[in-house]
Write a structure and sequence with these properties.
Layout (H helix, E strand, L loop, with lengths): L2 E6 L3 H16 L3 E2 L8 E6 L4 H17 L4 E6 H5 L1 H5 L6 E3 L7 H11 L3 E3 L22 E8 L10 H5 L3 E2 L2 H13 L4 E6 L13 H9 L6 E4 L9 H8 L7 E3 L7 H6 L6 H14 L4 E8 L6 H14 L3 E6 L17 H25 L4 E6 L7 E6 L4 E5 L11 E9 L4 E5 L9
Parallel strand pairs: 1-2, 1-3, 3-4, 4-5, 5-6, 7-9, 9-10, 11-12, 12-13, 16-18
Antiparallel strand pairs: 7-8, 14-15, 14-17, 15-16, 17-18
Amino acid sequence: MKKVFFITFGCKVNQYETECMKAAFSADGYDISCDYRNADVIVVNSCTVTSSGDSRAVTALRKLRTANPEAIIALTGCYPQAFREQAVSITDADIVIGTKDRSSLLPLINDFQLSHRREIALSDYSPDDKYECITCTEFKDNTRAFVKIQDGCNQFCSYCIIPFARGRCRSKPIEILKQEISGIAANGVKEIVLSGINLAFYGKEFGLNLADAVEVCCGIDGIERVRLGSLELEMMSDNILDRLAAQPKLCPQFHLSLQSGCDRTLKAMNRHYDCNMYSSLVQRIRLRFPDCAFTTDVMVGFPDESDDDFLQSLSFVENIGFAKTHVFRYSRRKGTVADSMPNQIHDNIKSLRYKQMSQTAAKCEAAYLSSLVGKTVRVLFERENSPDFHQGHADDYSLIKIPREKCKKSLRNQLFCVRINKSDCDCCYGTVVRDKAASET
């Protein structure tokens, strides 16, 4: 049997697309290999959010070619789509394909096997492109499945290359989504995480919105929890929030991408909101989901970010009280507006601000976890990877651990109610308070 090895860089959307490609290869008679050294085909699914992402893909290609010179190596993903000349110049890749027409990858491999001629399949996006409906119903970790329902972005933030790598917003048709989620549920997955490049724009071209996708997923038997991936603010109307709040299976965790808590910086980033709009949305969500958790991303060291701008952002993060914050330093990206902006911030200042913001984020996370002590939460238990604890995530995505000695059997892929007894800086500890699965009570 032919063997294929995959290596994936980047976000959950990339990971989902790799799972879809694995399914296509399996259907074509390939065995999915865990060892690149004996693979007949190697697929590198790249990320290009930062230049270091490009470097990781290039390094991987060189290493893979050296280790397995006879393999057919394909480079796909955002890097070749956004930077085609650079990608095409990498001779370690026999096949180069971007983020369009992933379904053509197998035919390209078949053509290469016959001709041994390098295959380049890179085409530009156009505004009327449709969503490419690659799907997957089997996932390696069958407790939670990340499912892409939206692709592309229309926002053009000044620091971001992704609109050039993914094209404009487009959405998975609702009937195809329903079929896919039904198949995932039939394979035993209990939690769905809806993902996209700009998830909140789901369904716009169909006259639908994100609530329509959530309602479909919540209506599938066997799916116990539906979670939302990263959200932009602009499309989250009161009507959508009301419909989301009416779905008991929807997890009350909202990842609202912030980037900065300073209006001047947000404007320079070409973000389409200000701090008042962000705070207002947080309040409107809390009215409907009193026990919800907010998570976010925050960038430090954006060009021309002054000390006062940074302190405003720091204060905003502290005032919102995020349950978890991904803090990262601004990284210059060729092809973006921000790359040519004046007053680029020195790396030493970025590092100092990163440390300060991370400390504030950690303090907020610890405070949030502490607020859960004494409460009872639903936990979906996951892969057993500790000799001392069973662990899983609550509906709000807090990490929960319970001692193994009180329950020696595996709890994987089961929902239980857990009373929280204590917390530390990154998780909570508790005990199961019901013997029956929470979904059955």
